Amino acid sequence: MHEKIIGKKITNRYSVWLKPATLGSRFQGKRPSLLLLSILLGLVLSACQPVRPSRWEDAQQTSEAQPVVSEGDVIKGSKFNQFFPEASDPFNIVFLQEKEGFAEANLEYEGDEVATLAISDTANNPSARDKYGQSTKQLAGYPVVAVGSNGTAILVADRFQVQVRSKAEDFAAEDRESWLQEFDLKGLSELAN
After folding, report:
1. Which residues contact 142 (CB under 8 A, 6 or more apart)?
2. Nearest-angstrom CA–CA distance, 130 and 121
């Protein structure tokens, strides 16, 4: 089958009538349609491959699978401000953020940020309460847990997480516990009712 095939009809199962080829006419006739067909077939086959979800889509699916209470049941962040500690010189409290179920403020000492204070409603994230089940320590009658190496938090009325996170290296766990007790925890617990 090593004979010259240009301009002849080859009779085998791959038979194709080949016209004499010149440099400019190589893809004339049925060749472009075959080339186009093979490209389209390749695109269709590659498009039919299953697409693995990205890690962001996995995270979205995980968060959507968690039970969420309607926003009507979650306390507005602005209602938490009244329960934050009262600061006096040399301390100052600067509110940073209020959103549905969350309020946050910076604790400043002589103008320098030393800690972050926060209250969050766990009504829309019940799994946040789980870590308090293993707590062996109580603070002001509420279970207390360490949150990483720079945070301390308590769970008030089995619903509100109150947290103090150190920003300054010398703001120790004892300081965080002391500031947790400065919150109006009794008033906050009544908000749960």
Report:
1. 154, 155, 156, 185
2. 14
Reading across the β-sheet that carries 160-166, which strands appear in turn? 91-99, 102-109, 112-121, 160-166, 151-156, 142-147, 137-139
* The two structure tokens encoding residue 154: 């308590």
How far are the Cα atoms of 43, 50, 55, 73, 84 from residue 47, in angstroms, in the given order? Answer: 6, 8, 21, 44, 56
SS3 assignment for the chain: CCCCCCCCECCCCCCCECCCCCHHHCCCCCHHHHHHHHHHHHHHHHHCCCCCCCHHHHHHHHHHHCCCCCHHHCCEHHHHHHHCCCCCCCEEEEEEEEEECEEEEEEEECCEEEEEEEEEEHHHCHHHHHHHHHCCEEECCEEEEEECCCEEEEEECCCEEEEEEECCCCCCHHHHHHHHCCCCHHHHHHHCC
51 falls in which pLDDT band (50, 70, 90)? Answer: low
Q: How confident is the model at residue 74 (pLDDT cuts 50, 70, 90)?
A: confident
Query: What residue ranges do the domains of the chain occupy?
Result: 73-191
